[in-house]
Amino acid sequence: MTLHRVHVVVVGAGPAGLSAADAALRAGARVTLVDSAENPGGQYHRMLPDAYAAARPEQLQHGWRAFDHRRRRVLEHPRCAWCPETVVWALERRDPPGELNDQEDPGPPRSSQTPRVHLLSGPADGSGRARHVLDPDALVLAVGAHDRVLPIPGWELPGVFTAGAAQALAKGERVVVGDRVVVAGSGPFLLPVAASLLEAGAGVLEVLEANTPATLARGWSRRAWELAAQTGKAAELRSYVADLARHRVPYRCGRAVVEARGEGRVEEVVSARLRADWSVVPGSERSTAVDALCVSHGFAPQLELPLAAGCALRDGAPGSPADAEGAGAVGQFVAVDDDQRTTAPGVFAAGEITGIAGAPAARAEGALAGWCAAGGDPTVPALRAVRRARDRGRAFAERLARAHPIGPAWPGWLSPRTVICRCEETDYGTLRRAATSPAGAAARVAKLTTRAGLGPCQGRICGPTVAELTARLCNGPAGERAVAGLSPATPHHRPLAHPIRLGELAAPPQPHPQSQPDPPSRVPPTPTKESER
Length: 533
Known about the structure:
Elements: E1 7-11, H1 15-26, E2 30-34, H2 64-75, E3 80-83, E4 86-92, E5 116-121, E6 130-134, E7 138-141, E8 145-147, E9 160-162, H3 163-173, E10 181-186, H4 190-200, E11 204-209, H5 213-221, H6 231-246, E12 251-253, E13 255-261, E14 268-273, E15 286-289, E16 292-297, E17 299-301, H7 304-309, E18 313-315, E19 321-322, E20 332-334, E21 347-349, H8 359-373, H9 382-403, E22 419-421, E23 426-427, H10 428-435, H11 443-450, H12 463-474, H13 502-506
Parallel strand pairs: 1-2, 1-7, 2-3, 7-21, 9-16, 10-11, 10-16, 11-12
Antiparallel strand pairs: 4-5, 5-6, 8-17, 13-14, 14-15, 18-19, 18-20, 22-23
């Protein structure tokens, strides 16, 4: 008799996904780890490509040694199949029990409703990519988040980068985006971005945090004693501050870049002092000559796969569940229970799609998700410390949201000619005319009228902003006006999560190599000092 071993597919190999794979292997499962990058680690532990001679990366990244040990342990495990440069282009929901086709071979025992996973392996711009199909017993989604950037006049100019893209170039390629760089936006992520740019050799002129000192103080000082548990983050903060001080880079609060200017590319930025609601203080504008601008106003979770799997969402405030049909509003995350289980059968979630709380919290969530997805006992004593680390991360996420909110007056920065959708060059004036028209106020109609969100990114960048601006112009919550009989149009509902060529779609899927596991041994994920930070 062949022993069936739980097969867990983990999507995303950042801190959460790698920790989930590690825990699932400890629980005796066989694991398929999928990531679009060449190496695991995500943005936090982004590495130079293998072709580069990376010298002592542990000196450049916080928690590198613990990450490297976990990476080697996972990738070298005989029950782990590592799939680099691979994307999940679709999740196919399974038929409910009792509705299976009688002629379909059910295969080994499995969670009959866990979504089928469709993979596409190979470089994104390469030819000969292979298509695979997996039927896992459990699925762990740890797909992370991307920068949210508020539009400003001139942000479509070459030389304007998201902060995450600039950091990825600096950490992953040692490419500097400019010699005179301004880093602006909101949130603590601005600090590691500036530090990465400085380490790669860029010249950073200043770091601008849009929230006022009073807003920051209120957010970070509330229940200040809880910060004592965040010793790792405090050490990380000190190192970033030391980097800025060593390079004499000023950090200014209550100031933001409200316009980028230039002929053919960005040549100068206009910054202004802001009030607490992010309205501009008249007369406070000043110009700075630059050759690059890096901007980030927080993060937006990547919800395409969770929604494709049928996961419900919650609002940003913890404990407030929201139905998935209302997905798309800014500040929504995947709803999970105490074991990181979503509302979709067989699907678990971890990391930034459940809340923006940083790498240590993501690791704790990943360990819980992987262990429980593999069928491990959720009551083992070793998980108590992991849950405490996860809960501290959730509390930190609440503090982060209070200290770095997006001020409601930011649309005052816009002019009618400000581009909102860079792919289709849709400006604010066009969006405003469509939103205030009775015929064009519905989201689907406005999308077709303005073409905002119909470009190559399919609304991933502009979608939340378009939804928020449309809601303001219509005097209602985002997604309120919908076409009768159709679910609300949102940037996250899409049948295809990634582009796929017609030839690749038409070709039959190829068998995916699976490792044959030894008899399982369950070893609970024990928190290390690094995961406790």
